[in-house]
Design goal:
Number of strands: 11
Shape: globular
Radius of gyration: 21 Å
CATH architecture of the largest domain: 3-Layer(aba) Sandwich
Number of domains: 2
Strand order of the largest sheet: 3-2-1-4-11-10-5-6-9-7-8
CATH superfamily of the largest domain: Isopropylmalate Dehydrogenase
Helix content: 40-55%
Distance between the termini: 39 Å
Largest sheet: 11 strands, mixed
Structural class: alpha/beta
Order of helices and strands: EHEHEHHEHEEHEHEEHHEEHH
Length: 350
């Protein structure tokens, strides 16, 4: 099997270049990939100084860096020699099989669209992330931030791409697909969810109906679709609740000697739960629907999160996720009959 070549944006994230380089060092020789670090060479070499010489890692010098707070499209157009743009151009030219960054999400999405383009037949790409659920189950949520406003056909395609992803990446047979709404009944929701519900009900997917926000941690579906505005709010709320929960638990454990003793007894189990809920365990979100494997990590990614993002990219390459999404673009109609007058629209007319 061909060794996957992965470009890592060494300048991306709040903790760059230290944590991306540390994550690359963790991955080197373990994941069985060829790593290409893009970024300011002097900064990368400074982080590597004192480490053992590592194989299968090379550096591509890029003078520009797109900051986390820069305007996405303007920065991409102005900084053509940035690590994000250069890395994606390498992917486009076939010099790499995947691109990973913890940098500016908006800039990465803009650069991916400008450089890679969309998979033929796909209306809009979606950010897809893994959401931990009860009893170790995993649910894919999409879109979690790529598209604040969507038409019904977009969510319809998100559902098919999500199902394809879960089949290829996790071996889930006939993934259960659900639609996030404000009630389980098919009559609940706004105009968008009402129309998407009818479209999914008439599809060949294993559509299990609507789910509410409270159902996400229960793992009632393998794929849950929503517009990007809703998905981003869901994701950020879940992160905040997890941080609050473990912060309060830490305070409670330190409150009295008895609590500390109980905490020591439960420590191993609490660590398991924390790891299950920790974003670093899942590496990041994949931008599905662009014509290349692109994984975007959390801006606060540490070395472990970078390692897991690289692993996710490797697995996506080896499992043929891009080929499966390309098949979705060919098979899923650009217009769905019966979805309401003008509801679906034509893909690519934006």
């Amino acid at each position: 099997m061909k060794v996957p070549r992965i470009v890592l944006d060494a300048m991306g994230g709040d903790n760059a270049p230290g944590e991306p380089v540390a994550g690359a060092l963790m991955a080197a020789g373990v994941l069985g990939v060829e790593l290409i670090l893009v970024g300011r060479q002097d900064a990368i070499e400074s982080e590597l100084r004192g480490t053992a010489t590592i194989r299968d890692v090379r550096i591509v010098d890029t003078p520009d860096v797109i900051g986390m707070d820069e305007h996405a499209t303007d920065a991409v157009r102005a900084k053509r020699k940035s690590s994000i743009v250069v890395g994606l151009e390498m992917l486009k030219r076939g010099e790499a099989d995947a691109f990973v960054t913890a940098g500016n999400t908006g800039a990465t999405m803009a650069a991916a669209l400008l450089t890679l383009g969309r998979v033929k037949g796909i209306g809009r790409p979606a950010l897809a992330t893994i959401f931990p659920a009860a009893e170790g189950r995993l649910t894919m949520l999409l879109d979690v931030g790529a598209n604040a406003d969507c038409r019904p056909i977009h969510l319809y395609q998100f559902a098919h791409m999500g199902a394809a992803y879960m089949e290829r990446m996790f071996g889930v047979n006939r993934p259960r697909v659900a639609l996030l709404s404000i009630g389980e009944e098919e009559t609940k929701g706004n105009q968008l969810t009402l129309e998407v519900h009818q479209m999914l009900r008439g599809s060949r997917l294993n559509f299990v109906g609507n789910v509410e926000g409270k159902d996400l941690p229960r793992g009632l579906a393998d794929v849950v679709v929503m517009d990007g505005f809703t998905g981003n709010v869901v994701l950020k709320t879940a992160e905040g609740i997890a941080e609050l929960l473990f912060g309060e638990l830490r305070k409670a454990v330190e409150l009295t000697p008895w609590n500390k003793a109980a905490g020591l007894i439960l420590m191993s189990e609490l660590r398991k739960v924390k790891r299950q809920l920790d974003y670093a365990e899942y590496g990041g979100a994949q931008l599905v629907g662009v014509d290349g494997i692109v994984v975007i990590g959390h801006g606060r990614s540490n070395a472990r999160a970078i390692f897991n993002a690289l692993k996710a990219a490797r697995d996506a390459v080896q499992n043929g996720v891009l080929e499966k999404v390309r098949a979705v673009g060919k098979e899923v109609p650009a217009r769905e009959k019966g979805a309401g007058e003008g509801a679906a629209g034509d893909i690519g007319e934006e």
